[in-house]
């Protein structure tokens, strides 16, 4: 069985590519890539906020959440989006209730 003509004629670039990939894998395989960060670094103290509450964060109580909105404002917002293709924000009214 003979190799295809194109492979027999161009085996040197293919071999060079394989050798190059092996050298990259062996030479740089154990190297860790580290990102370059240009923003200011945050410390643990900056990220940690102790918010005091009367109830624990993960309690076993039953919680109910209700969101209400004006149907006419919603329909106006949807029809304006369908007509112009742009989103406009209307005042949102929501009610959050919690039962413990």
Radius of gyration: 31 Å
**Would you report the number of β strands?**
0
Give the H and E element order.
HHHH
Approximately how much helix is present in the residues?
40-55%
**Class based on secondary structure composition and strand pairing:** mainly alpha
Q: How large a portion of the residues is in β-strands, by DSSP E?
A: under 5%
Distance between the termini: 80 Å
Low-pLDDT segments: 93-100
Overall geometry: elongated
Summed over residues and divided by their number, the pLDDT gives a mean of 77
Describe the sheet with the most strands.
Answer: none
How many helices? The count is: 4
Can you give a write-up of this model?
The chain has 100 residues and is mainly α. The chain has a domain at 59-100. 41% of the residues lie in helices and 0% in strands. It has four helices and no strands. It has helices spanning 5-9, 11-28, 44-47, 71-84. It starts with a helix and ends in a 16-residue tail after the last helix. Mean pLDDT is 77; it is low at 93-100.
Kindly summarize this structure in a few lines:
The chain is mainly alpha-helical and 100 residues long.
Fold topology:
Elements: H1 5-9, H2 11-28, H3 44-47, H4 71-84
Output the keywords.
mainly alpha, elongated, single chain, 100 residues, 0% strand
